[in-house]
Each structure stands twice: as C-alpha cells, then as structure tokens.
Amino acid sequence: MNALPAELPVLPAWDTLVVAPSLVLAPGRVPISIYADELWHLDPLVANPSAVRAHLDWARFPKQLRPQVQLAAWMMINTPLPTSVLVGHPAWHSRLGPHGIHDTVLRWQRLTVWLHHQGLTDLARVTDEVLAAWADHLARQPGTRRDNVTKDLVALTRLWAFDAADPAPTGMAMPPWNRVGVDDFLPATPTAGQGENTTDPISPATMGPLLIWALRMVDDFADDILAAWTESRRLADVAARTASSPASKARLKLYLRDLIDRDQPIPSRPNAGHDHALAITYIAGHVGCSYTQVNGLVGTGPWQHLVGYMRSNPGPCPLATPVTGLVEGTPWTAFIDFTETGELMRHLGTACFIVLAYLTGMRPAEVLGLETGCCPDPETGLHLIYGRVFKNATDQDGNHYSAGHVREVPWVAIPPVVTAIRVLERIAPDGGLLFDAAVHSFKNAPTAPAASIGQNGLRERIEAFAAWASALARRLGRDQEVVPDDPYGAIGLARFRRTLAWHIARRPGGLVALAIQYGHMRTAMSAGYANPQTGEKAQVASSQRGLDGLRGYYEPAA
Fold first, then answer.
1. What distance, in Å, lies between the first and last C-alpha atoms of the chain?
2. Which DSSP helix (H) or strand (E) runs through 153?
C-alpha cells in the first residue's frame, strides 16, 4: 500500500481532509474539503492564478460504486502512483496535477455509469472481459479519436493501481492493455495533429483594427478612464457616507426642481429591457445627500411624478473629469458617463491584455500570472519582463508543478508593452497580480484571493471589447477601423501568440527572433544568438515585426 502523508489516517473517516495539508500549494483560497463532502474542491492544489478551479462531483456517480471510486481518488490525490506501475510506463507522471486528477476522475465516472447500465455494482466484478468490452465500447463511438481513447485506458490503469494500493482494495482486475499494450484496444483512425501550432492565426483584417483600438485605449484613453473611475468611486462614497439632514434634503429638492423647471433630462441609468431607472447613486453623490433621501423623496406625493418625468426625459450622468484622449485630433468622447465607468475599466484591462499577449508572444497563463513590479525601469538598456512559465513546469520528480517556474530568459518589452504594464500597475494592488480578478471585476463581488481573471471570462471580454471598439469606430466615422468577425471563429486567447509567430516567421531573420522571444533557446543559440545583448535585440525585433507584419496587410486610412 502507498505511504500516505503523516497527517492522514490509513483509512479515511467522514471528516478526513481530502488534501493533506503538506500538499497544499494555495492555502486559504477555499477551505479544504472533507471526505464526506459531495464536492471535493481541488483549489488547494492550484497555484497557477489563471487556472480553472476544478472540483470532483460525487453526485454524478452511481451510488453503489461511488465509495470504491472515492477511496481510489483520495489515494490518487495524496499518494504517488505505485512504483510497480511506473516501471512499465516510465513516461508517466507519478502525480497528476489538479486538472489531470479532474480529467481522470471524469473518465472513471463514465466507466461507472456504463458499469451501472450493465448491472455491475462492484469493482470486484470488473474482469478482463469487462474492461475489454469497455475499451471496445469506447472505440466504437462515432468520431472517437485514438488519443482520447488512450487517455481513457490510461485513466483505468490508474484506477486499478490506486484501488490495489488503497487500504480496502476491491480486487478489480488489471486492465489487459497493461499487459499486452494498448494498440489492440484503440480505434483504427489515426489521431489528427494537435497542439498550439494547429491554431489558426487571427485574420490581419481583424487583428489590425483590434490592435489599433487596444493601443489607443492604453496610450490615449487610459488617463481619462482612470480619472473617471476614481471620480465615480468618490461620488459613490459620498452617497454611502453622507448622513441625511434637512440641509442635504434641501439641496436635493433644489437640484431636481431646477432640472424640471429648465426642462432638462433627469440623470438615469439603463435598466432591464429598454427602460431607464433613476440614477440614485449619481444624484446622491452629485448633490451631497444619502441614498435614502433620494428614494424617500421620490416616494412622497409631490415628487411621485419624477419617475414618470424621468422615463419620458432620461438623461446621462456626466462626470466632471476632462476628456484629453484624441483620435487624430478629435476627442474620443464628449464626456464619460458615471454608469459606464465599470465597463470602460473592464475594456481598459482587456486592451492591456491584448497588447501584452500579442506584442510579447506570452501564453495566456503567462500574461495572467504577471505581478506588479514585473517590468522595472532599467538604469540602461531595454525593459525586461520577469514572470513565470506554466506549460511543462515540473517538480524535482518530473510531475506537473502548478506554481510554474520563473522564466530563465526574461521577455523584452517594447514601449507599448511597458505602457500597458504601467496602466495595469495603476489598477492592481502593490505586490499583486496585474490581472487580479477581484480588482478587475470593478464591482463589490467577492472573489477568491490570488486569482487572476479566468480565461473563459477573458475570452468574453475580448469579444465585448471588439464590439465596443467597433461601435466607437462607427460613432467617430471611422468605418475602416471596425473590427470584423474573424473567418476562423472567436478571437480567443492563444491565437494572439500564434498570430505574432505567423507574422514574425514570414520576415527575414524571423525564425531566430521567434525562437528567442518565445523561449526556444536551443534554436536561437544554434543560430549564433547566444549573446544576451544580441538576444535582446532579436526579441525587440520580434515584437516590432508583429506590428510591421500587420502594417503589411492593414493600413488605416489617414
């Protein structure tokens, strides 16, 4: 039987921790689940700030088989794969990361559901013949791929191994593919090429205007948006902290009466559907009264008509902050509205991500793992970005290491990238993540600490930013800068890196610059670029080629 961490019992009780404290990489994010929980959270094993938080849902398993699989899963979380199994599979990892655990247990779930439908309610009844029948069932599914079936069969080898090693083994049979090899149990169709290099680059017609608006947002609009956000928070604070008084009520009445007498619109905010609602927070902060006084006044007889008047004459909530950003000499907006500051701050953060992801070639997780101070101002030379890489990061035993490792060769940042980082440092807390999820929500929603914006959420933000930029382009009469839909689908996250690589590789010397900027140092050094100063120049050239590559396909009209 595998040796469990000292703080765990040999056989788990209902209140035994699912993850041994000695294995926790991210303490405090969520409480460690206990064995009796229906959901086992794997968050304590996730140190990558942008990784999806996985959990195991035992309600999805047939009840009779659930306890046996749970025990095997608990062993898999807390102990390495038995050495006897690793001897026959030297390329396997002795420990899986949290997402490997989640994927493996999902594959166990599919087996248990199938077993249940076959009338088998005990792993002890899982024989060679049953496992072979399951493999045949998988191989016959329409559209199945060899690589996916291979993962299913490897997962079942792990189930057998951890079941055999746990304190109450069922006697489940060793999978036959563990003895004779896996090829005979796989579908005949070969696996198509997978991976990053099969990702389609973003169309230049889409990438060009998208990057133009991202750069404008970072270079030209950021000061306006940040000032407006600060002012909107000040007004909200005034509304929350101001005590009701006769003087504040008098100010409120005078303000509203003046608007009505001059037939001016009443500050409103978008509401459900196409209706508007009274902008209570803006009015209270602007006048210097409390929320309750605005609500209370509207409810009194003499002022009940105000809501009807507002709905027929809704108005904006302009902030007094100046607009300094220009688009070729024209202000990008007449004013910033109190109700849109949160949305604009989200777009600003998204623009910073686009600039960083495209002009550095970082993977999404690498961008989302950057912290404040990652790009110090140099005394001489170029700006360098210090961060972590997560892909293929392993510990001393060769297993996945969720926290990643500091990149041996820092990324080199061209000026637009430095500007984007400086903007983010004005938003993020000192010593925190540049894309801290709690900060970038721009609302009072509880968010787990030490977590960045989720990659799924960021994909949605990029699509929203493209739509916002297109609407602004049309409003400013710049139809040539509308962001068209990409012919290959959603923009996503990984396609920025692929797009930059596509442009770089098609330029003279591009492969060397690509190798250095993307960290493929073996290629770079074999080409004679081992000198650090030369390498930095090639990295700068690679980012600049990303801009130049777009100029070759897309030139905005003057």
1. 73
2. helix 146-165
Stretch 188-203: mean pLDDT: 61
Q: Does residue 533 surpass a pLDDT of 60?
A: no
44 neighbors 32 (Cβ within 8 angstroms): yes
CB 549 within 8 A of CB 504: yes
Backbone angles phi, psi at 382, to 5 degrees: -95, 160
Helix, strand and coil in the chain, % to nearest 5: 50, 5, 40
**pLDDT tier at 173, thresholds 50, 70, 90:** very high
**Residue pointed to by tokens 């509203």:** 256
Rounded Cα gap, residues 451 and 47, in angstroms: 9
Q: Residues 39-43: contacts with CB within 8 Å, 24+ apart?
A: 40/73, 42/77, 42/98, 42/101, 42/102, 43/98, 43/448
Which residue, among 66, 70, 39, has the nearest Cα to 53 in the 3D structure? 39
Contacts of 213 (CB under 8 A, 6+ apart): 351, 465, 469, 472, 473, 481, 483
Residue 335: what are its φ and ψ, rounded to 5°? -160, 165
Bridge partners for 278 per DSSP: 268
What pLDDT is recorded for position 149?
92
User: What's the CA gap between 492 and 545, in Å, rounded?
Assistant: 22
CA distances from 354 to 218, 319, 349, 384, 464 (A): 10, 28, 9, 18, 13
Facing residues of 39 across strands? 57
**382 burial class (0-12, 13-18, 19+ CB within 10 angstroms)?**
middle
Highest mean pLDDT among 145-159, 300-314, 442-456: 145-159
Residue 363 and residue 404 in contact, taking contact as beta carbons nearer than 8 Å: no
State the pairing for strand pair 266-270/314-315: parallel
Neighbours of 10 (CB within 10 A): 10
**What CA–CA distance (Å, rounded) separates 33 from 21?**
11
Burial of 219 (C-beta count, 10 Å sphere; 0-12/13-18/19+): middle
Q: Which residue has the tokens 């990702």?
A: 199
Is there a contact between 297 and 249 (Cβ–Cβ < 8 Å)? yes
Which residue, 150, 162, 175, is CA-closest to 96? 162
For 381, left (φ over 0), alpha (ψ -120 to 50), or beta?
left
Rounded-to-integer distance, Cα 157 and Cα 477, Å: 62
Q: Give the count of alpha carbons within 13 A of 43, CB side only.
A: 14
